[in-house]
Amino acid sequence: MKFNCHFKMLLLSACFSSTMLTSCDGEQSKVNKPYRAEILKFVPSSTTSGESWVVAEQELATLENLDTLEGSFFSMTLGGLIKINSNIGSLIDASSNSSPVRANLRYTTKNGVIVPRDTSTLLALSSYFAFEQTLAVLQESTGIDPNELKKNINGPYRIYFEPSLTEKDENESAFLTPKLNAAFNPESNDFYLFRRSELESIPFSANIKVISHEFGHALFKNSFNANSAEICRTSEEEINARMADKFFSGRWSNEYAISGINEGFSDFNSYIVTSSTNVFTDSLPGFSSESRSLTGPAFVFSQLTNDIVCSGRFYCIGTLFARALYGVAQYYKNRSDLMAFSRRVYTALEKSRENLRASPAKDILPMPSKEAASCIRRSKLSLSYDGAITSAFLAAFLQSFSAGEEKKNLCENLRNLFGNYGFSQEARIVCES
Amino acid sequence: MSVNLDPLMNLISLGAAFAASNRNDGGGVTSRIHHYEVFAHSYLRSRSEGLFFRPGVRFGYEHIPDEEAPQSIKIREQSFRGGLELGILYEGFMVPSVSLQAGVLRRQLTLEKGSQITSKSTDFPTIEWLPMGTLNLGLGLPIEGGKLILEPFYRFVWIAKDTRQTSQWGIDASWSLSFEN
């Protein structure tokens, strides 16, 4: 009898709590498109001191399904397991070998606005919004219709939010959860936003400066790589043939200097989207990132063998390229002129690939080194070899610019930053036309 | 040696518990959560030999370490919970038990932000009330003739609209207080 009484009390308590309290718990399902959410957003400014961040209500214009985070241009997976084959900086050759984890967002709605209830949901929606913001300027900054870009990759880009990785070598495999990074996989067109960390101020995953940098890699692939992943894979039999072929498939994805140019273009894209000159400052305020800053202490190509000057390996070549572009961008005081310049940069990048096959770039371009032909990635700069590659690239790149003040300024910047090693006399011929 | 539960009609016990759980934070990575609880049980003889019912009440606090949270932005969660429970246990050399808990979790959500972030949101802090229930499997180890019982347990957890944690494990320590009729 007593048991029955206690059991009924327990049952009543459970029923009471589930029926009465659920109604106090917000209405998670009643939210309509276009979705609006409280998210973390970057507010750009023409000056670094004027930049700020705000938590505010924003529209997630391209998000189609809140439960699965599927959208017109981006689909986000929370978690997921990624198998890493190799990586070059923030470019990753990897595959997802597990089913994506369904988005498990926690939020309530107030007046139709999604209010995150945990840090993961806040950051995931903020990341999604940052990708949307990056896409919003795409047409203006590159001339590409976002729908065309989507068509080129056969669907939306997939974003893995805080995935885990497995890394395999011949003997063992490791399971890891990287932090303090983000990456783009050109083969699968996936973005990886790695786990948040207590070392970050603004988390990388929600930092539009980082996200627009990674998106720059996607644009580099779409332009310079003609939308091909161009992964360099080793094949012993092919090495000799490759060493005799300046344009073997996969060369550009593995060349140290071109990796640097890719990083530099991505930094420039981050600047175009955010007006910010340093990708890292808001996320890692204590980290010395001056060598990646577009306005940091000056250094030139010939100093890049000295790690004290710049320790970022091929990223340092990227900084030089981005600084040269940034220097020209400073001449454009209004937004439409700046965007027009950005479009010319993108077009030049697109044409560089073909221009490399023509004089003078073709003649300057060295035959692939054995390492390059073997898909071995160097960790050190070779002034002569990499300098010849940057010279060839810059000649091909500049060829698309019409003669005039802009080209003159760009040539001048490149001359000052790359010097004779990285922008040889033979390459500079294009500046005269 | 078995526990003498015979006079338990007149017995209640008071106790404290420590538990831990892994919370899936949206990706494949988990955070460890610590739970601190206090509880009171009474014991009711059933008609079957050696079987007792154990109704009780339990209150707890969830501590969520945020070592991994970024410095400038996070939603801090502070949770208290309270509920009723009913268990069935068997008196023996050890005291295995199965119990159900039903209750509610009160969670305060606070947006914590660094100085470079401003907020236009008026939706924080906010409080959510979440119904919850657990299925608890325990194995009591009587000490001092049953005056003190240490009971390691494993719980399956259900929290409404929060599937980040699905189980907890820990230990109950309870002291019996007997009364004269």
Can you summarize this structure?
The complex is a heterodimer of chains A (433) and B (181). Chain A is α/β, with parallel strands linked by helices and 433 residues long.
Describe the structure.
- The complex is a heterodimer of chains A (433) and B (181).
- Chain A is of the alpha/beta class.
- Chain A has one domain.
- Chain A contains 14 helices and 14 strands.
- Chain A has helices at 2-22, 119-136, 138-142, 146-152, 208-223, 239-243, 251-254, 256-274, 314-329, 335-355, 361-364, 370-373, 383-398, 405-422, and strands spanning 35-43, 52-60, 63-65, 70-71, 74-78, 81-88, 91-96, 107-110, 113-116, 157-161, 164-168, 173-176, 182-185, 190-193.
- Chain A has a four-stranded mixed β-sheet with strand order 2-1-9-8, with helices on one face.
- Residues 1-27 of chain A have low confidence and may be disordered.
- With 181 residues, chain B is mainly beta.
- Chain B has one domain (16-178): Porin (Beta Barrel).
- Chain B has strands spanning 11-24, 30-42, 44-45, 51-63, 73-90, 95-113, 117-119, 126-143, 148-159, 167-178.
- Chain B has an eight-stranded antiparallel barrel with strand order 1-2-4-5-6-8-9-10.
- In chain B, strand 9 (148-159) and strand 10 (167-178) form a beta hairpin.
- Chain B is elongated.
- The two termini of chain B are 26 Å apart.
- The model of chain B has no long low-confidence stretch (mean pLDDT 88).
- At the A-B interface, helix 1, strand 2, strand 9 and helix 2 of A face strand 5, strand 6, strand 7 and strand 8 of B.
- Strand 2 of chain A pairs parallel with strand 7 (117-119) of chain B.
